Amino acid sequence: MALTCPFPRSRKGAGEVLTIVVQVDAPPGQAIGIKEAVAMRLEPLGGVQVVSITEDTPEQMHVAGYGGAQGPPGPRGG
To answer: Most Cβ neighbours (<10 Å): which of 5, 12, 24, 46?
Structure first.
């Protein structure tokens, strides 16, 4: 999750932005609640905007030895 927190404008007029990357060890599907909790904690420091959230989920098992589609069925010999 990446959050940005704009600071008051500097003397030159350009706003300075602090980007914070947060990595949380939490169960899958909790991203929205965690995003809200972190953003609420940072709001007293200035305006907060959530830039992106990624959720790394465990990879599913793959069956080894399966080579893809098979050809059409052939004639049965007898």
So the answer is: 5
Mean pLDDT of 2-27: 69
Domain membership of residue 17 (yes or no) is yes
Q: What are phi and psi of 29, to 5 degrees?
A: 90, 5
pTM of the full structure: 0.52
Place of tokens 């098992």: 61
Domain of 11, in residue numbers:
2-52
Is 6 in contact with 54 (CB distance < 8 Å)?
Answer: no
CA distance 29 to 22: 16
Is 15 part of any domain?
Answer: yes
